[in-house]
Amino acid sequence: MRDLDDQELAYFLATGIGDIVKGTRAGGLLHGRSLARVATEVAQSWTDEVLSVHRPDDGVLSEDASDDLSRLDKQRVWIIDVIDGTKEFSTGRADWSVHVALVVDGAPGVAAVGLPDSTRVFRSDQVTYVDGPLAGTMVVSRNNPPEVAERVARATGMAVKPMGSAGAKMLSVLLGDADAYVHAGGQNEWDQAAPVAVALAAGLHASRLDGGEKVFNQEDTYAPDILICRPELAEEIIAAARG
């Protein structure tokens, strides 16, 4: 058995999950909800087994597994979403992602975010954001665009672009295709932990919409809002969000 450090494990988890999920599309035999259900179940089962072998003492929080609240007593907790953007995945879109994060004492550190249809995995130990000209664009949820986004857009002059999963939106900022990702109205920790960890490691700003620090592994996994953006825009966006 390989002896993997945390970052290697996060990377191979994200890579393996992506391969498994894509494999369920083979032959076009499943579609829609059936495809998403099977892909989620198989990928989650594999993930659970890998973590039980390689990190048996760590806690786990995942969208697609029952929540074992013993995680609250653990210093190290893996927060995972095997398919972030289920609607996008099941309808053949490419803007879905895989989220794997390790939080220690509530702080996101090690993480990997995969874009399986682009065969790319972004590791928190090997990532920097594209620091070029501003794109003039803010990405928001395709399925649940927040009202606050329009206020931020008016104040900053950014155009609003709908997009799929939280991971895909964060990566659009990291890659320089957008300047900010703004969301309000509710997500869960598994939507945010890996994107926040990768964004922070890359040098981007990542916080609550009011500028507060993101803290994970809470008993209530509801995560009401998020801001990921180029660092030079954070103060202006936070002020606009506050109204």
What's the SSE blueprint?
Elements: H1 6-23, H2 32-54, E1 59-62, E2 76-84, H3 86-90, E3 97-104, E4 107-115, E5 120-123, E6 137-141, H4 147-156, E7 159-163, H5 166-174, E8 180-188, H6 189-202, E9 205-207, E10 222-229, H7 234-242
Parallel strand pairs: 1-2, 6-7, 6-8
Antiparallel strand pairs: 2-3, 3-4, 4-5, 8-10, 9-10
Task: Explain this structure.
The chain has 243 residues and is of the alpha/beta class. It is 36% helix and 26% strand. It has seven helices and ten strands. The protein has helices at residues 6-23, 32-54, 86-90, 147-156, 166-174, 189-202, 234-242, and strands at residues 59-62, 76-84, 97-104, 107-115, 120-123, 137-141, 159-163, 180-188, 205-207, 222-229. Strands 1-2-3-4-5 form a five-stranded mixed β-sheet, sandwiched between helices. It has a five-stranded mixed β-sheet with strand order 7-6-8-10-9, with helices on both faces.
